[in-house]
Amino acid sequence: MSETHISDKVGKPRKAHWCRVCGEMIAASETCHIYRGVADGEGFYTLYFHPDCWEYSRGWDGADWECASPGDVSRREVREWLETESRLASAARTAATTWRG
Description:
Elements lengths: L2 E9 L5 E2 L6 E2 L5 E8 L3 E7 L1 H7 L4 H6 L7 H26 L1
Antiparallel strand pairs: 1-4, 2-3, 4-5
Helix pairs in contact: 1-3
């Protein structure tokens, strides 16, 4: 099955939706990431993400999307992962600056 990306943007939905990653509700008018696509044999679809959940899922490949169900990763886990990534990136920048002298 092939999928085609149509659009992705940051927006505010008119009604509540469930986040595709953490499975928690995104309230109406809450800022979120909105992804639209079309899958062969299944038609058009729209997915909604909390901004941090969108960032978390950027490294996923097709197999990750096939295996993951909404709520498999909690929003708390997403935030912890993002905090760890941020600390690692900061440490790498510090090390690079120190190394250059």
